[in-house]
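Design request, tokens follow.
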């Protein structure tokens, strides 16, 4: 039974009738460009096969009745326009926040019965919250019988739901990647003006997503503090954003040493993202692997968002891949997943070798997800 069919059946069990439809929004893995989206930088995410499904049925009166099928069938109900953020922040924060932020932007959102299911491991760094928000947005918009909103408008509403309803002051990368990305391709996103360009990956490449076994939390993991550090650097450098700063300017300025490291990561990571697009276009796995290694070192040493288990996983994966490809931490940091790009023919060998070399902190089986390039369906 497919994931979509399971979600539909969960709706029927809960509400006693067929849904009007089922929508899906993918998660995303960021190939490179970490913590630069809220600094107006360039990022290179890619949608993945795992995501969020929402079975929906329209109902009048502006009422939302929802069930989270994979969270012990937790329930929530409220009237559109008459609710406040749920505390502490959880899935209900996004459920309530997404239609509210859509309404604030003039996007239609109708009353609905909703059954929600996700296949993204929470705390994995693969944008489960952005996927949830975009899926919810598509469902309540369909319930209002409204034309689909543009990916940019839907992404803006989802970002505001994160900020105002869940307390995570994230950039726009995750939401745009989920709303606008194409399967099997990366999405070059300029976070300064939200311009996008599809960057197809060679069909004989593969992307591996490997869970470290360390679950992360963006609020508890000091994500917001890293953003404040960047804001301090912007003020001290007197630039509109770190996108406008050069490495020479950062190194020459009278900055607190911690703030200098944060700014140095952002400036060099933006440059690495541009170089990664060129490497992909040239089909140069070795060059991309070197960029991945430099990115991970910068996140570990300058931005200080890695943890020992993730460092060990990156080292193991890099060693078994060899020169033709590479690995790096992906996501907000403090745990979560590692991403690798390599030749597709090497996936069985690399996966087997990694299972021999790396153990999660709790001894759980290693979660390795294979995303195919070139627009092919995932395994």
């Amino acid at each position: 039974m497919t994931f979509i069919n399971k979600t539909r059946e969960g709706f029927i069990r809960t509400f006693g009738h067929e849904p009007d439809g089922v929508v899906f929004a993918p998660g995303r893995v960021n190939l490179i460009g970490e913590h630069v989206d809220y600094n107006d930088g360039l990022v290179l995410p890619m949608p993945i096969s795992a995501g969020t499904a929402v079975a929906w049925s329209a109902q009048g009166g502006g009422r939302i009745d929802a069930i989270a099928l994979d969270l012990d069938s937790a329930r929530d109900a409220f009237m559109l326009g008459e609710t406040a953020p749920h505390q502490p922040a959880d899935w209900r924060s996004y459920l309530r926040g997404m239609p509210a932020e859509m309404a604030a932007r003039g996007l239609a959102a109708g009353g609905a019965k909703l059954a929600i299911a996700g296949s993204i491991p929470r705390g994995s760094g693969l944008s489960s919250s952005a996927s949830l928000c975009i899926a919810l947005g598509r469902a309540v918009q369909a319930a209002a019988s409204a034309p689909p909103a543009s990916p940019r408008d839907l992404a803006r509403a989802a970002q505001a739901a994160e900020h105002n309803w869940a307390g995570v002051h994230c950039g726009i990368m995750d939401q745009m990647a989920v709303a606008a990305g194409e399967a099997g391709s990366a999405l070059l996103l300029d976070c300064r003006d939200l311009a996008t360009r599809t960057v197809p990956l060679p069909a004989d490449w593969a992307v591996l997503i490997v869970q470290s076994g360390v679950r992360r939390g963006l609020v508890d993991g000091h994500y917001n503090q890293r953003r404040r550090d960047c804001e301090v650097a912007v003020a001290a450098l007197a630039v509109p954003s770190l996108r406008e700063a050069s490495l020479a300017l950062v190194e020459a300025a009278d900055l607190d040493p911690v703030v200098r490291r944060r700014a140095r990561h952002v400036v060099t990571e933006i440059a690495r993202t541009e170089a990664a697009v060129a490497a992909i276009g040239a089909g140069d796995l070795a060059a991309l692997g070197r960029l991945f290694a430099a990115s991970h070192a910068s996140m570990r040493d300058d931005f200080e968002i890695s943890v020992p288990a993730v460092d060990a996983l990156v080292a193991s994966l890099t060693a078994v891949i060899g020169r033709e490809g590479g690995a790096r931490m992906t996501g907000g940091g403090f745990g979560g997943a590692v991403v690798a790009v390599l030749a597709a023919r090497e996936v069985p060998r690399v996966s087997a070798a990694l299972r021999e070399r790396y153990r999660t902190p709790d001894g759980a089986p290693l979660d390795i997800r294979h995303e195919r390039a070139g627009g092919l369906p995932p395994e």
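Comment from the thread starter after seeing the answer: thanks! The domain at 201-372 is CATH 3.30.70.890 (Alpha-Beta Plaits).
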